[in-house]
Write a structure and sequence with these properties.
One of its GO terms (cellular component) is apoplast. With about 625 residues, the chain is of the alpha+beta class. The protein has ten helices and 35 strands.
């Protein structure tokens, strides 16, 4: 979700500090992007390389291509690649070059969103935490220390690769908060990006006043209805984030967006002269380790056309594939013809594209979400299903209707696999609750968590000593926090837990406590428990996931690789966990003696954990079925 500057390239290869870009050039006019002198109607999909594994990349890209996409879009995750100043990591899941080469090998375009600030429900928005310690820095503002860092990261590291820079994140949403420092920062960022002279167009999403020649674009679910259009007649209409569902948070239910709804709004956007649509996400993947932002689940955009495991989600994937095929069949007339629109009913309208050569394409739109409409167009009758668009490539015959799903419906299944129910296989290591005299840092005020841990840990103990007052007969512990969660102890006694949520940023913990006659240690935050167990890899090639439904809150590792945070004890309004299955990529496993380690805060039952296989099973298609 962001304001972005992006390049569409055929090939981006960086080897030994040198680079080459395939393709003649990329430009644009008021109708579309132009690649090698030809206007392009482009469908793109977001797939983030660190949210999957190198072993998964070829299959993900191939399925995207088969689904009718021509562009793969990804962020570049600065905090992964430069965790400390001057220390770089492009190995394993972080191998951006390998990912781009795989896109190239399959004949697709790449769209890079370099940032440096990316948001993306990613920890610290993609910024490395060491920026926090630079003297005088103010992020995302007309601030010299911040601008120097951005200038260096872009010109020193990316200009050699002739790659573009993604500079901000839906900045217009917060620009007013920076008062006089906001607008000049926008102008500076655009000028710096264009100054890279990459020879490709630059884009800012959700920024109406994007300076020329930067293209302003739309993000959201209904850009055909909400987008005001480019801020210049010389810029094309582009939809840079079409949310295929929405990210999920702990304590929240999944957001289900139907295939019909996505198809309707894509068709409407194209009917209104749109020429570029990117699906965010096409494959969401997994927030491995501690990479997810506050309260965001480990599973990311699981409802996308390719689910968390890389399996095809039907009918969403197939219905959009058919839409892309219909659009491509019409693309020459759509890009070359003159568009007109007119009413064909109270809530119905027609958009028509006509070429001088006689080519004609029509979109018949029924905006009524409840009733079927019978309309007249070109002396013929057409029945339009509720909230649907029919595409007529010759202005006579319908080849696609957004509400008519011809793709079969699939259901994801889990098959019980390895059980971790053997007591002797587990070892338990409990953290010792520290006391005041053992603390390494003492202060008269509470110290901010992130400043102390430097984002290296989710956990920090706060310990205070309290001398009981004989006149206080009912002592009460009261904690006000702007953090995420707190555990409370008085001495060795546990008094409970409290937490906020994605939408509630602060919380209060309050509980009666028992105090000793002497001094009592009051300890706040977390108790940490590690639970290792050995297991063999399950047979077959199906994706596998840990079923942690009997655990509480913590983090899980397989063979030293974190598969992410889990929070089973945080229930939704329906009384169920937001996520119980946690993806274990096959590449994390070895044939035997795999080591599972759990870091559990609140307690659970590890004997009922299982490693399950994930498969897809077809179900009978029927009209009115809730599609995903």
């Amino acid at each position: 979700m962001d304001w972005w500057l992006c390049l569409v390239v055929v090939v981006l290869v960086v080897v030994g500090g040198e680079s080459s870009v395939g393709g003649e050039n990329v430009t644009y006019d008021g109708r579309s992007l132009i690649i090698d002198g030809k206007r392009k109607l482009l469908f793109s999909g977001s797939i983030h390389y660190p949210r999957s594994t190198p072993e998964m990349w070829p299959s993900l890209i191939a399925k995207a291509k088969e689904g009718g996409l021509e562009v793969i879009q990804t962020y570049v995750f600065w905090n992964l690649h430069e965790p400390q100043p001057g220390q770089y990591d492009f190995s394993g899941r972080y191998d951006l070059v390998k990912f781009i080469k795989e896109i190239q090998a399959q004949g697709l375009y790449a769209c890079l969103r370099i940032g440096p600030f990316i948001e993306s429900e990613w920890t610290y928005g993609g910024f490395p935490f060491w920026l926090h310690d630079i003297s005088g820095i103010v992020y995302r503002s007309d601030n010299e220390p911040f601008k120097v860092i951005l200038h260096n990261i872009l010109f020193q590291k990316y200009s050699r690769a002739r790659a573009p820079a993604h500079i901000e994140n839906e900045y217009q949403n917060i620009e007013a908060a920076f008062i006089e420092k906001g607008p000049p920062y926008v102008r500076w960022a655009a000028t710096m990006a264009v100054g890279l002279q990459t020879g490709v167009p630059w884009i800012m999403c959700k920024q109406r006043d994007a300076p020329d020649p930067v293209i302003n674009t739309c993000n959201g679910m209904r850009c055909g209805e909400t987008f005001e259009g480019p801020n210049s007649p010389n810029k094309p209409s582009m939809w840079t984030e079409n949310w295929t569902s929405f990210y999920q948070v702990f304590g929240g239910e999944p957001y289900i967006r139907s295939a019909q709804d996505i198809a309707f709004h894509v068709a409407l956007f194209i009917a209104k002269n749109g020429s570029y649509v990117n699906y965010y996400m096409y494959h969401g993947g997994t927030n491995f380790g501690r990479t997810g932002a506050a309260f965001v689940t480990t599973s990311y955009y699981d409802q996308a056309p390719l689910d968390e495991y890389g399996l095809i989600r039907q009918p969403k994937w197939g219905h959009l594939k058919q839409l892309h095929k219909a659009m491509k069949f019409c693309s020459i007339t759509l890009l070359q013809g003159v568009q007109t629109n007119f009413s064909i009913g109270q809530l119905q309208e027609a958009y028509m594209f006509q070429e001088d050569s006689g080519g004609c394409v029509a979109f018949l739109v029924n905006n009524n979400g409840k009733d079927t409409a019978n309309v007249q167009f070109h002396n013929a009758s057409f029945e339009l299903l509720p909230k649907s668009i029919s595409i007529l490539p010759d202005c006579q015959n319908v080849i696609f209707n957004t509400a008519t799903v011809e793709t079969g419906y699939d259901e994801r299944m889990t098959t019980l696999g390895h059980m971790f129910d053997y007591v002797d296989g587990w070892q338990e290591f409990k953290d010792v609750i520290p006391n005041f005299s053992d603390t390494s840092i003492k202060s008269n005020t509470l110290l901010e968590h992130m400043n102390m841990t430097k984002a290296e840990s989710d956990y920090l103990w706060y310990i205070s000593r309290f001398q009981r007052n004989p006149d206080c007969t009912n002592p009460m512990l009261h904690v006000e926090s702007l953090g995420h969660l707190v555990h409370a102890f008085a001495g060795e006694t546990y008094f409970g837990v409290a937490h906020g949520s994605h939408d509630v940023k602060g919380f209060i913990f309050e509980s009666p406590i028992l105090l000793n006659d002497d001094v009592t240690n009051i300890s706040l935050l977390s108790v940490m428990v590690g639970l290792p167990a050995m297991f063999d890899a399950p047979r077959g090639d199906d994706p596998v996931a840990l079923n942690l439904s009997t655990m509480g809150k913590g983090e899980a590792w397989v063979n030293g690789q974190s598969i992410g945070r889990y929070w089973i004890s945080f229930h939704t309004s329906k009384g169920t966990p937001s996520q119980t299955l946690y993806h274990v990529p096959r590449s994390f496993l070895i044939p035997s003696a795999n080591l599972l380690v759990l870091f559990e805060e609140v307690g659970g039952d590890p004997l009922h954990i299982s490693l399950d296989a994930i498969t897809i099973s077809s179900v009978q298609n029927h009209y009115g079925h809730l599609s995903q």
